[in-house]
Amino acid sequence: MRRLPLAAFAVLLAACSSDPPPPRPTRNVAALEIAIRHASDWLARQQRPDGSWASGTYGFMKSGQSMTPFVGRTMRLADRPVEAERAVKWIRAHAGPDGSLGNEGETADYPSYATALALGLDATIPGARRYLVSCQVTKADHTERGGFAFGARAAELADAPHTAEISRTAWVAEALGAFPGAPAAIDFVTRCQSADGGFYFTPAGDGNKAGPGRSYGSATCDGIRALRRFGVAADDERIQRGLAWLEAHEAYDRNPGFTGEGRHWETGIWYYYLAALATVHADLGGPQGWRDRLAAELLKRQREDGSFANGNATMREDDPLIATALALEALVKCR
Questions:
Q1: Measured between alpha carbons, how far is residue 66 from residues 60, 79, 268, 271 in Å?
Q2: For residues 253 and 276, what is the distance between their CA atoms, to the nearest angstrom?
Q3: Nearest to 114 by CA among 84, 71, 56
Q4: 0.70 cut: is pTM over it?
Q5: C-alpha dihedral over 303, 305, 308, 310, to 10 degrees?
Q6: How far is it, in rounded angstroms, from Cα 73 to Cα 118?
Q7: How far apart are CA 270 and CA 250, in angstroms?
Q8: pLDDT digit string, tens, across residues 241-285
């Protein structure tokens, strides 16, 4: 009997294996790694001596309360532990007695966002988890019941719509996971899902960026990742319908679902969309070659100093700290 060559035998074994093949690496691995290093180096140079990051573009974010955990979390993802730990020390020194971040000073600096991001960087901040739970809208007849408000005081005064929305709820989901209030939060996210399977900003219809009940890319990614972090299984119908919407509207050069008119959200929420899309695909898989296509869109926009910036200021992505942190997260998840 003729013996199979070793190479042919290996191919036969692979064909018979029940394990899925490993994901194909990004074709230009060297370029990807260089871009990641340059972006993280740029962010490291922007860190202040006290360990914080602060916006030089928007005055109300100059305190560092939201920017420090935002950038610090991304540096942790990019394997920059020195900068991340310096950020943690700053956060611990500036967290309020209730565990919140973003409530220091005269102007609130996105307290529920800042606290959720801080917990994502350091899960042991005293009181932070309890504070985030208090940001959930619990008023029984509220349109946005179960979602998360701007801060605890906003949740207590939840008499008007647009108190809670899907982006903030997704960030809190990342920090809290499957906590006791998760069923109400899951219900809120479910009410943000459109008949076409995509997700939108809030059930309080007229607050949606793409129009009442109209799905768009970044909200759909937020809906999927919120459900996942709150403990919903990958094969759940809501998640599968959301993934089908993303597949049907696959785009990397814009945030899909917008008309291209008015404030041009399709370009204004672009870096955020790519970071959220990379998170979803890295968790649940995506179309063949998504890493290559997503990375290529970012690589051609990186500036010589390693930073990124959006020419559209609609969602403050013109601030290079914001754009670069989001771009870096997306690039890391393209590995």
A1: 10, 21, 20, 17
A2: 14
A3: 71
A4: yes
A5: -70
A6: 8
A7: 14
A8: 999 999 999 999 999 999 877 779 999 999 999 999 999 999 999
